[in-house]
Amino acid sequence: MQETDIGTIPGWQPLMLSLDLPSATVSGAQIGEQKLAVWRDSKGQVHVSDDRCPHRGMRLSLGFVREDMLACLYHGWRFDEGGHCRVIPAHPDIRPASTICVPVFPAREHAGLIWTRVDGADTGDPPETEWNLPETEHVTPVRTIMINVPLATVMTQLGGASGTCVRISAAARKGPPLSLLIVARPAGHARTQLHLLLEGKAPQTLCKQAAFWAMDFRDATEREYAGDGSDA
Fold first, then answer.
1. Which CATH code of 2.40.128, 3.40.10, 3.30.450, 3.30.310 fits the domain covering 132-228?
2. How far apart are CA 120 and CA 102, in angstroms?
3. Which helix (H) or strand (E) holds 130?
4. β-pairing, 113-116 with 13-17?
5. Cβ–Cβ < 8 Å for 116, 47
6. How far is the CA of 219 from the CAs of 43, 90, 193, 215, in angstroms?
7. Beta carbons within 10 angstroms of residue 86's beta carbon
8. Looking at the DSSP assignment, which residues form a beta bridge with residue 104?
9. CA–CA separation, 45 vs 41, rounded Å?
10. Please, what sign has the CA dihedral across residues 189, 191, 193, 199?
11. pLDDT (tens digit, 9 = 90+) per residue, 184-212?
12. At CA 33, angle to CA 31 and CA 39, rounded to 5?
């Protein structure tokens, strides 16, 4: 899988934890060169589009959700789930042309994560099949963490392969071993986005220990990578 921020990264990619995107909010993300606006409507449905308003190029991820449409911060143009412009506040009586739209991408939620793909390929297998993920009810999302190390190095440390979920049993700072599920993807040049989950319905005490593990893993991996003098 590609390690830099150049080009298009294939397949389903995890963007963020579902719990980090409340209803009627929008957030930004990026896969390869593709910048994304990720938003959730009032019904809880997630949508993903290009992060550029066709009017003046403003980042849509800086905007807001109004009447279950994504609204640009600059002039308030609103786009529906299909990317079509439905409202131009400066001209409320004019129906926007069908050519005014933003590209949209498939969006799924599974295992407490929001997924999309920007490679333009047929969606084929869902993310849970592609990444070998368990059923949603069998996991507890913990946190997302950024590691300033290439994905290949992170996966070597974890003993897994890029593009698939890694299952490990890890020692906690205190308490029983942690049954971790790790989903990681490249997040730019020599940078990895790591999503941490726990198998089963885990109490808050275990989630806290898993979060400590993630920070310890990040710090140790970054130190080792810097000590090697490796160049991504």
1. 3.30.310
2. 15
3. helix 127-130
4. antiparallel
5. no
6. 39, 50, 14, 6
7. 14
8. 49
9. 6
10. positive
11. 999 988 999 999 999 999 999 999 999 99
12. 50
CB 32 within 8 A of CB 5: yes
* Tens digits of residue pLDDT in 44-76: 999 999 999 999 889 999 999 999 999 999 999
Q: Helices 151-158 & 204-228, crossing angle to 10 degrees?
A: 120
| Strand pairing category for 85-87 and 78-79 | antiparallel
* Same fold for the pair 13-124 and 132-228: no
Nearest CA to 105 out of 57, 21, 37 is that of 37
Q: Count CA within 13 A, CB hemisphere, residue 21.
A: 29
CA distance 155 to 151: 6
Enter the DSSP assignment of 56: T
Torsion angle, CA of 58/63/66/68, rounded to 10 degrees? Answer: 80
Residue 168 and residue 177 in contact, taking contact as beta carbons nearer than 8 Å: no
Task: Classify domain 13-124 by CATH architecture.
Answer: 3-layer Sandwich (2.102)
- How remote is the C-alpha of 112 from its chain's centroid? 11
3-state secondary structure 186-205: ECCCCCEEEEEEEECCCCHH
Task: Using the structure block, give the residue that is written with the tokens 């997630």.
Answer: 46
